[in-house]
Amino acid sequence: MTPKTLLVVYHTMTGGTAQMAQAAADGAGTEAGVRVRLLRAPEAQPEDVLGADGYVFATPENLAAMAGLMKDFFDRCYYAALDRINGRPYAALVCAGSDGQNAARQIDRIATGWRLRSIAPALIVCTHAQTPEAIARPKQIGADELAQCRELGAALAAGMALGVF
What pLDDT sits at residue 103? Predict the structure, then answer.
C-alpha cells in the first residue's frame, strides 16, 4: 500500500506557530502509513498541495486575521488545486494573541472553496499577547497545548492511514 502524504504548511514570526506545526507533524509522524512534509508557507508550492492526501494549515493571528504569508500561500496555490483536491481532510492551527477566530474562519472559507473536509474545529492557542512588546516577543507554547497539537496531527494521520478521511 502506498503511504499517504500529510502536508503541514505554516508561517511563524515569533516561533509559536512553528512549535504548534512541529507538534502536529510529530504526532502525525507516529502513523506508519503516513509520510509527513513540514513546509514554511513561502516554500510550499501548488505541486506540494496536489501531491498531498491531507493538510494541516498553521498560522499566527496577525491584526485579527491569518498571517499575510499564509494568505500568499493560499493565493499562489488556490487555482492550481481548485477541483483537484476535493474531499481531502484538513485541520487548522492558530497561534493567537486574542481570540484567533477570524484567522480560523479565513482558513475554513478557503478550505471550503477547495472543497476540503475539516476533521476538527480549528485548534486555537491564545498567548494573550496584547502589548507591542508581548506581540514581538518569542513565544513558548505550553506543554498541554503542544500535546493537543500532537493529538490532532496523530488523529488526522490515523484517519488518513485507515481510509476514514
Answer: 98
What residue has cell string 493538510? Answer: 55
- Taking the model in full, what pTM does it have? 0.97
**What's the DSSP call for residue 57?**
E
The Cα 78–Cα 110 span in angstroms is 8
Task: For residue range 105-121, list pLDDT tens digits in order.
Answer: 999 999 999 999 999 99
Out of 35-39, 112-116, 127-131, pick the least confident. 127-131
CA quadruple 126, 23, 158, 10: dihedral, nearest 10: 70
Digit-coded pLDDT (tens) for 41-75: 999 999 999 999 999 999 999 999 999 999 999 99
Q: What is the CB neighbour count within 10 angstroms for residue 140?
A: 12
Nearest to 18 by CA among 76, 93, 71: 93
Amino acid at 4: K
Give SS3 for 92.
Answer: strand
Measure the CA–CA gap between 20 and 95, rounded to whole angstroms.
8
Which amino acid is present at 83?
D
Residue found by looking up cell 498541554 in the block: 144
Q: Which residues contact 132 (CB under 8 A, 6 or more apart)?
A: none
